[in-house]
Write a structure and sequence with these properties.
The chain has 404 residues and is an alpha/beta fold. Helices cover 44% and strands 18% of the residues. Strand 5, helix 6 and strand 6 form a beta-alpha-beta unit. Helix 5 crosses helix 6, helix 5 crosses helix 10 and helix 6 runs parallel beside helix 8. The N and C termini lie far apart (62 Å). The structure holds pyridoxal-5'-phosphate. The site of pyridoxal-5'-phosphate (PLP) has 20 residues, from helix 6, helix 12 and helix 15.
Length: 404
């Protein structure tokens, strides 16, 4: 399979090789078809793209800088490190890129009500933000355990006028929240659009979310050419469902000299129930609308996952990543909780940037790679979000005390 063919996927039915597709109850087939049709029309409509560009720049704060991390580069003594600063976007992460695209689409379809699922709450906050901005009703499903762990984001969503529904089934985290959102959608399809938060789920979500996030890679490519007059050698991004990673990688897929690494959550190490690294011990299966790599036991039960970072803590990975993994186009590895925490503190103290714990997984991989690459090598690390939401948790983990 050539790089060009890889970049032209998915096919018309949403398949990336054996992955992807559309595995939903019959009642959702029609709304998904409606969404696919409207998305295809919007994509071809210059007015839609220019309206999206307007809000991405005026409201969200694009373009984000491609920042040369001078002190980190000097300390590691190898490759030149650039940070793609998605952490500087409104609401603090890349999620708003996709939310803005989807709410404009929902408006085109005449929808008046928005629903979403959220784990750490970042996608919920971004969704509540765009819903407030366009005057739409908004309901966010969130696992009851996550509500408790991420109170700050629950308050933010409520202040933005959203209803937050705690989901008490099962593990009471993200997977259960997705189930509830799908149930709501089946019941309220006429009025409601479901803003799915990552490059996952039934066709067309993985492709649509990727295309709304590719602005990260398109900008980074242009910025690198301006600054260094050539393409980067290595891209590094963390992978939860996979949206910030595919957003950075996609525009470079056809450039054979650009290597790419996706970093999953290694949690407490690669043992059952202790991590969320789907490419370490995952296998082919169907979960929540799509076929991909999942962490499951022999009878197909979804395994428990663990990560210090809620945004990476999910049992399945987006289907395009499964495909890129099989093609060998992207290399997938993991960072453990303790490696991510160390990278978090290092970036804060060397560069004055407090990253999201998710993004700290990508930084951790950079700490391993940069020293063994020559000084002429160029790395881009996707800083998918800022760490404000993680401050209390990290303070507790690293044992910070109040000054007395
Ligand atoms: C949600 C989130 C992620 C993980 O989601 P992807 O779809 O894999 O990008 C990563 N970083 C941050 C800051 C997030 O909020």
């Amino acid at each position: 399979m050539s790089a060009t063919a890889t970049a032209s996927l998915p096919d018309a039915r949403g398949h990336f090789g054996p992955y992807g597709g559309c595995y939903v109850p019959e009642t959702l087939m029609h709304p998904l078809q409606e969404l696919r049709d409207e998305y295809q029309r919007a994509r071809a409509d210059a007015a839609f793209q220019s309206e999206l560009d307007y809000y991405l720049s005026e409201f969200c704060g694009r373009p984000t800088p491609l920042y040369f991390a001078e002190r980190l580069t000097r300390q590691l003594g190898g490759a030149k490190i650039y940070l793609k600063r998605e952490d500087l976007l409104h609401t603090g992460a890349h999620k708003i890129n996709n939310c803005m695209g989807q709410i404009l689409l929902a408006r085109r379809m005449g929808k008046t009500r928005i629903i979403a699922e959220t784990g750490a709450g970042q996608h919920g906050v971004a969704t509540a933000t765009v819903a407030a901005m366009f005057g739409m009703k908004c309901v966010i499903y969130m696992g009851a355990v996550d509500c408790e762990r991420q109170r700050l984001n629950v308050y933010r969503m409520k202040m933005l006028g959203a209803d937050v529904v705690p989901v008490k089934a099962g593990q009471q985290t993200l997977k259960e929240a997705v189930n509830e959102a799908m149930r709501d959608w089946v019941t309220n399809v006429r009025s409601t659009h479901y803003i799915l938060g990552t490059a996952y789920g039934a066709h067309p979500y993985p492709e649509m979310v990727r295309n709304f996030q590719r602005v990260i890679g398109d900008e980074a490519r242009r910025q690198m050419l301006e600054k260094e007059n050539r393409l980067p050698d290595l891209l590094i991004a963390c992978v939860g469902g996979g949206s910030n990673a595919i957003g950075l990688f996609y525009p470079f897929l056809q450039d054979a000299t650009v290597k790419m690494i996706g970093v999953e959550a290694g949690g407490e190490g690669i043992q059952p129930n202790k991590h969320a690294a789907r490419f370490q011990g995952g296998s082919l299966g169907v979960l929540q609308g799509t076929r991909s790599f999942l962490l499951q036991d022999e009878s197909g039960q979804i395994q428990l996952t663990h990560s210090v970072s809620a945004g990476l803590d999910y049992a399945a990975v987006g289907p395009e990543h499964a495909w890129l993994h099989d093609q060998g186009r992207v290399h997938y590895t993991y960072a453990t909780d303790s490696e991510a925490l160390e990278a978090f503190m290092k970036l804060a103290q060397l560069e004055g940037i407090i990253p999201a714990l998710e993004s700290a997984h990508a930084v951790a991989e950079c700490l391993k790679r940069a020293p063994v690459l020559g000084q002429e090598a160029l790395i881009i690390v996707n800083l998918s979000g800022r760490g404000d939401k993680d401050v209390a948790q990290v303070a507790d983990k690293v044992g910070l005390r109040m000054p007395s």
